[in-house]
Amino acid sequence: MQVLSKEDIEKISQILRAGELICSPTDTLFGILGNALDKEVVKKLYSVKKRDVNKPLIVLFSSIEQLVNFGVLVPLKYLNGLKKLYPAPVTVILPLSKESPFRKVFQRDNLAVRIPKDDFLQKLIKKTFPLFAPSANPQGELPAKNCKECKNYFDGVINFCIEGKVSEAPSTIVDLTGETPVLIRKGIVKFEKVLEVLSDKTT
Q1: Which of 21, 179, 176, 177 is nearest to 86 (CA)?
Q2: Which of 183-187, 191-195, 198-202 has the lowest mean pLDDT?
Q3: Where are the domains of the chain?
Q4: Class of domain 2-198
Q5: Is the dihedral of CA 48, 53, 91, 184 positive or negative?
Q6: Residue pLDDT, tens place only, 150-189
Q7: Is the model's pTM score more than 0.85?
Q8: CA angle 39–130–51, rounded 5-degree value
């Protein structure tokens, strides 16, 4: 497994465009990055992680504008709150438009999305495309914390790893597809804080 630096962003972009997976630090845990718009790359990820196919992936975007451009529907009542919330280690589940390319990729009518507060990830997404970023571990194992642990899990099936530090705490996941926000997973940001920000209706 070749270890890369965040300074190698051009090479990293090329690797992702070629349909490869890359182990990488994210704004939360160490993760596996890949093209969230490519069904074959998504299939590869599920195979490598031995992940339950019914377990959805989180997709990282650079901005609210970008996710809207890809057919993610932001309910008007949450728009101002989400603009204040992001970027942050909070994942929200939002509905997809009928035209969204993610419907074909994931066979779902909603998508778990996050806008990371991480300069490297922001630059990488802007250079490439929305990226999935599940934790770097086979399902049921502890998440890797660095490239050495990623190599132990995935050597021979994932060829690249970006070294860096992580928080070792997952994102908070909140479902916004219903009438009221529902906590799906406790994470680094308290649910009460998310609710407080989302309730912002000022213009």
Answers
A1: 176
A2: 198-202
A3: 2-198
A4: alpha beta
A5: negative
A6: 999 999 999 999 998 887 788 999 999 998 999 999 988 9
A7: yes
A8: 50
